[in-house]
Here is the input.
Amino acid sequence: MLAHRTWLVTAVAVAVAVVVAAAPSAAAARKPAPPRDTQPPTAPGNVHVTAVEQASVTLAWSSSTDNVAVRQYAAWTNGHPVQYVTDTSATISGLHPGTGYTFFVEATDGTNWSAPGSTSATTAPDVAPPSAPRDLALATALYGQPVDGVTASKVLLSWTNSTDDFGPISYQVLVDGAPSPNVFDTRPPGTQVGATSTVWVRQLTPGAAHTFAVRAVDGGENSSPLSNTITATTDPNSDRTAPSTPTLTSAFDGGPGQCPEELWFTFTASTDDPPSSLEYEVRVNGTIIDVATATSWISYTAIAGVNTLTIIATDPAGNPSAPSNPIPIDVGPGNTC
Here is the structure.
């Protein structure tokens, strides 16, 4: 029993000694932490452009200085990923041809960022046209359902879309040799462009043979060759009286702040002689984005910023009213698709 007590006392003493040895001294506990570095590097100097391509710009700059050390630089332009580098040059890619950009460069020591240096440049223009649209034809179905693709004042067309090195691509429909402003793309705003396009060409002359062709235009205003040409004859209709002018009574951004953005609006109905079933072309900045059949309507836009809304009434013969009063609607800069 005595031996057991002796062993127990010894074990406790050793444990206490270990704890005491492991505990920091009072002087060590009071030792102040090293001061935090609060001095940022100097701003990168002489930020300039060394190479300009259609989709990229290469920058260079003079080294920053710091009381500790410069660890890396960040180079960017708004709307594009930041490039982190350890030397004094960077290439910003993914740009659009013929577009002006402002570029920024900052230095960091790992804790603080410098003030930015900056420069501006315009990318090289896009000079290559899109390919020609193919397989232009009269369409007989829309959204998977059969449809009468030729009426007294409308023709439904479809084609295989063009390709381009940059884009974005838009299309001009030529009616009897001239681009028509009365084209309604049936693709819902905000949806991805597929392999084909289907559009209504509106406000055509009844009982007449019309020729149609399509060309593509890219973001650099380069026009493709024309597609094949087709001819269609609209149904006869002797009505030549235009409907009265509708009046927009309200219009506002009714969406949730995403793309496509909702445009809510109301308008007074037009009258027509003889009375007929009217359609109302909903136009944003002059382009048809929807066709309304009631005087309280919700349309969608993929255009960021201010959209100027007007309404044009059309009768079955394609006679258009004068445009309604315009109402601007600001859907905000962040709602691009």
Q: What stands out?
A: The radius of gyration is 34 Å.
